[in-house]
Protein 1
Amino acid sequence: MKKILIVDDDPLLRKVLQNSLEQKGYQVVSVGSAKSALIQFNQDVPDIIVSDVSMPEMDGFEFCRQLRSQPSGKLIPFIFLSAKNDLNDRIQGHTIGADSYLSKPFEMKELLANIEALIERSRRVHAEIVHLIEQLVSSQPPNVLANIHHNSSSKQIIAPPQTEKNESSPKPLPLTPAEERVFWETIQGFTNKQISERLFISPRTVQTHLSNILNKLNLNNRTQLVRFAYQQGYEKV
């Protein structure tokens, strides 16, 4: 179920939007200010954001600007829903980083069409990134594949350097390629949420892979996994 974050200081509009979107099968979280939206976003990243522009304390433009400055907020689909219909306002909204700008009053059908289109575009972008990563990983020799991890912040595939202390390479991990990527991220100390953002997968998928990794390696927790990695010669990058 896709999650939508609604940001508007009008409680009646928030209620109408929440009811309409939930009827369409979306999970909706609504807040009354941009500051609350930033807190909510950092606690639980949504699939798309619909925000007003004119709000007290922090307007929608500044909210979008701060959101886009965060690594986890750069690719989140963002829709402005505003009574400010001036051309310059619309241009400013797109310049700051909004994907769409709808004027109040609006048609719910148009908003739904925008939401569905942006979610689908986001899905295609993430799927293509994962596909490219899979191609790069699968092209590596088996002995290198075990040491590859994905750094999505720089959009690169990086192989951990071999140290002179290791006379032989560690044994290949009994993991799938997807589990191997989660393995390398985990032993670097990243949380499930951070790994999901770096690998473009859901936190639930990260937890599933992590559980599989622990089961296959006969370990109980992350601490044991990190200890195992160092004892077996898998260098922390």
Note: The CA atoms of residues 159 and 232 lie 17 Å apart.
Protein 2
Amino acid sequence: MPAQLTPEAAIQLREGIGLLLGRWSALQMAIQNEWGGRDTRQRAQQLTLDIYQWLIRPSEGLYVDELEDLLDDFMLSLNTEIDDGSIEEIAENLMIMHEECLEGNFASIGRLRQSVPTSNQQIQVVKGGEDDSDSASSSGDDESMEDANEDEDEGENDSAPQDPVAAPKVDADGWTVVSSRRNRGGRP
């Protein structure tokens, strides 16, 4: 019989899933730009619950590739295609978090809780079925965050290519979101 989460571990896991997804740049861009429609935010909240239920389902084994498929299908439902490895990284981190919760170890969730997501991320995501001219970059609404990060950014971009397609941006967590060159069967 597979190990069961304690009630405390279940609460911690659900919070951890939300925190991790809240730091996934590609998902946050899709939410911010409502690429899945007006209900994109609600659908993302449902994703948190779906992942939680998937992780706690009674089964003989949980396979990371199944979780990757769940995440990929969800992002495609938001008209967002991800080809940068972040889906694999998110799925792996979710599996690790689940294992840690089974052991009563909530350290990674605590670190997520204490970390502050960067609102001045420069990333590139393309809505499915659209060309590169519609790619978007995010920038934080908080000008003080931009000013604080401006000093760090100076000097780094001097030698970087100016073409955003040729030089994908890496966010604070080390994830890169790049556009796809494929058209997924005419998806809107």
Note: The helical segments are 7-22, 25-32, 40-56, 64-77, 86-102, 107-114, 143-153.
